[in-house]
Amino acid sequence: MGNTPKIKRTIFHGTALLLSFIGLLLSACSKKLERTTIGISFEILQTEYWVASIEAMKDASQKNKADYLEAVANGDANRQFEQINNFISRGVDGIVIAPKDAHTVIPIIKAANRANIPIVIYNRLPAENKGSYTTVVADNYDITKKTVKYMCEMARKSGNKHKAMILIGDLGDINAVHRRNGFNDAIAEYPDTIELVAEIPTEWNQEKALAGVTNALQAHPDISFIFSSSDFLFPSIISALKNVDKYHPTGHQKHVILGGFDGDAMAYKMLVEGYLDADGVQDVYYECDASIQAIIDRLDGRAVKQTISDPGFVIHKDNLKEMAPKMWGANWAKQ
Amino acid sequence: MKASFFKTSGAASIIYLCLGYYIVMAFVAPGFFTVNNTWNLLYNLLPLLVIAIGQTFVMITAGIDLSITSIIAVTSITGGYLMSSDTAIFDSPESLIFGVLGMLLVGISIGTLNGIAVARFGMPAFMVTLTTMMLFSGLAIWLTQSQNIYNLPEAFVNMPYSSFLGIPTPVYLGVIVLGLSYFLLNKTLLGEWIYAIGLNVETSRISGVKVARIIIFVYAFSGFCAAIGAIFYTARLETGSPVMGQNILLDVIGAVVIGGTSLFGGKGKIIWTFFGAFFMVLLDNSLNLMSLSFFLIMIVKGSVILIAALLNANREKSLRTT
């Protein structure tokens, strides 16, 4: 009688082991991946831009008759590293990653290289490393410079000297650095018209942006020229401008010349309503198609450039009708 | 009868849950049952397990350590600062030793600070560790100005991929922490005191247990374990980061609670936490392999932890009513 629990336990453990063994056999015989499968890993889906990008990646995969797996790391570089390793275990044929930053992506590139899986880095240039990869990234410097030059021309035409403010992103993000450099180089060509009085470090955070813009407008109430390094910071700018009665459309005497970068739905609406003067647009569809195509080309043995640059474009009231169909935010706004 | 069911099967259920889930996923999740993925599971388990072990010690004393995320962040940047060739504080071979020692020292120090506040000043553990979490997270960001620290020594960043006698180095580290914790909790008087404090702090005090010292020790040990976790994370990302481990708190507490450690103290085992952490890693890995959306994964994980906490509270209630 005393042995009954022991026997029961032995039976249970034996059954469990048997089930494990059967599981092992069946999984070994399980269906292998038949179509090309691409692992798509995004650091975060915090803004419309990233959501639009991941959707465009999925569409591009389907257009190329490829399956996809998706993973989002919620801003955690470690989790993203683990997710990429999961993709590798899953046996994906290629990886597209929108990394957290330029450096934490390096061990991820190494992991993909070790597994001999082609990897495309989307939207952020990795720091210098010896790995094999392709980067698809917007020409942040050039798009920003063109956008800000358009704004500067507007300012010059007004005949007044303008005090300017820029909202800077996270300076650990190379895109933020390029956008700031593009802005600085553009206004440097208009010393008679533009005087930079405020640089707001936002670290891509709306609360920091709101506090920074509010403080800057307090210190310099005559600011009349604002560039935001990302469209997703517009709500903070609008809130701060409304507080000091400076949020008015083009043509109004208190209108602040406003520009941004990304091309999101809010920027499109603001352009249509006349509150936004110019926006640098990343061509999400081009970048996502290029990312998936780079994987397909690598798998087919075709040569792929190490960096594929998206020239993007500037959208403003004069070319709004013509360029809106190419602006991803315009399509989102209409959905 | 109900109480006896919970008492006997509650702890073992996590082992069977892991086993059952593992078998199901072997059929359902493509790529799950492969050698590569087994290594993945192991590598993902080690840091979480080590940090969860520290949390187990604290929770057995009926406390909680919410500051582990900030300890990971501060120790990560400390290691980065001491080891990076950009700062060049030490020469190459010494930088590794001083970096790792510095990380452990900082982790233990913050843990000790938590312990002193809880034990000597009688402050609630929840409030103390929540405050230190904010304080040290802010400090890490302020010290680095949100910048990551790179260019760590090759020996350090290659550690996760190095091996000795065919066994990866991180496994040795994990086994050492696991063995040490098991020994402390199960084979020493200190372990008995830790359980006693969790069961009834006043009775322990009257019985001559040095309650304050033990509480300080468990928080210091939790800091030590968080620092070891930070070593794993920093090495594999090749980066000292002020936001390292920012999102890991739910996984750590989830691992301990799912493992069956009582939220009310006095009960918990290292082996339970091992399986709790293993289950969390299994969950993440399998749902990821099945390509479920991020939001769905969060919902599933949150639900599992909530159910585990409910069962935990229910079990406790049943035991107290018998």
What does this structure look like?
The complex is a heterodimer of chains A (335) and B (322). Chain A has helices at residues 4-28, 48-63, 77-90, 106-114, 140-158, 174-188, 206-219, 234-243, 265-273, 284-299, 320-323, 328-334, and strands at residues 37-42, 67-72, 94-98, 119-122, 134-138, 162-168, 194-201, 223-228, 257-262, 278-281, 307-310, 313-316. With 335 residues, chain A is an alpha/beta fold. Chain A is elongated. The N and C termini of chain A lie far apart (71 Å). In chain B, a hairpin with a 2-residue loop joins strand 1 (163-164) and strand 2. Chain B is mainly alpha-helical and 322 residues long. Chain B is built from 13 helices and 2 strands. Chain B has a two-stranded antiparallel ribbon. In chain B, helix 3 packs antiparallel against helix 4, helix 3 (68-83) runs parallel beside helix 5 and helix 11 crosses helix 12 (270-289). Chain B has one domain: ABC transporter involved in vitamin B12 uptake, BtuC (Orthogonal Bundle). Chain A binds chain B through residues 16, 19-20, 23-24, 26-28, 30-31, 33, 45, 68-72, 74-79, 81-83, 85-86, 88-91, 101, 103-104, 106-107, 127, 170-172, 203, and chain B through 16, 19, 22-23, 26-27, 30-34, 36-37, 40, 43-44, 146-148, 150, 157, 233, 236-239, 241, 243-248, 284-285, 288-289, 291, 293-294, 298.
Beta-strand share of residues of chain A: 15-25%
Number of alpha- plus pi-helical segments of chain B:
13
Largest sheet of chain A: 6 strands, parallel
Q: At the first level of CATH, what is the class of chain B?
A: Mainly Alpha
Major sheet description of chain B: 2 strands, antiparallel
Q: How many domains of chain B, as an integer?
A: 1
Radius of gyration based on Cα positions of chain A: 25 Å
What sort of overall outline of chain B do the alpha carbons produce when their principal axes are compared? globular
What's the rounded overall pLDDT mean of chain B?
A: 90
Mean pLDDT of chain A: 89
Q: What distance lies between the first and last C-alpha atoms of chain B, to the nearest angstrom?
A: 10 Å
Query: Into which percentage range does the β-strand content of chain B fall?
Result: under 5%
**Which segments of chain B are poorly predicted (pLDDT under 50) over 5 or more consecutive residues?**
1-8
User: How are the strands of the largest sheet of chain A arranged?
Assistant: 2-1-3-4-5-11
Largest interface: A-B, 42 and 41 residues
- Assembly state of the chains shown: heterodimer
Percent range of helical residues of chain B: over 70%
- Say how many strands of chain B there are: 2
Q: Assign the structural class of chain A, choosing from mainly alpha, mainly beta, alpha/beta, alpha+beta, or little secondary structure.
A: alpha/beta
